[in-house]
Amino acid sequence: MSSPAPLEIWLRGPIAGVPPLLQPVAHALLQARDEVRTAMQDFPPELVNERPGGVASVGFHLQHLAGVLDRLLTYARQETLTEAQFAAFNAEVPPLAISHDTVEKLVQEFSSTVEKALAQLRATDEATLTEVRGVGRAQVPSTHLGLLFHAAEHTMRHLGQLLVTAQWVRSLA
């Protein structure tokens, strides 16, 4: 008899040190990290750039997950993007140069970005959540909470696309 599947992260209780209003953000990011690790385990690097039906590749989603999370967290801190962040954004355009450890490196980069996000959430004062934050070069107004929520939502959106594309390209291989 197999053991029951572990509970999803949001059902396991609060994440230590994360303010109560930001628990859903932390839960979503941790869930995404776990699902990326599972889905990419033993993923063949030669499939990273495949685009069946013209959809975005697994490599794009892996890069974008880390990159967009990093950028949204920067705006949430009321900072502007660095040259390195712009370079990373421009590098999200496939195809990726692939090697035997491409997938592992991309998964680790996303995992590290999630850890940085958790540290930022732990350091966030809930009293700032309704404060205005500018997004992008145009500084389109949002709120601190809006940015953090969108970071979680956008991460989950690309996770879903990654999971489907990874399964699709594996089935075609």
Automatic annotation (TrEMBL):
Pfam family, one: DinB_2
SUPFAM superfamilies for the chain: DinB/YfiT-like putative metalloenzymes (SSF109854)
Taxonomy, superkingdom: Bacteria
Residue span(s) of domain DinB-like: 29-162
Annotated protein name in UniProt: DinB family protein
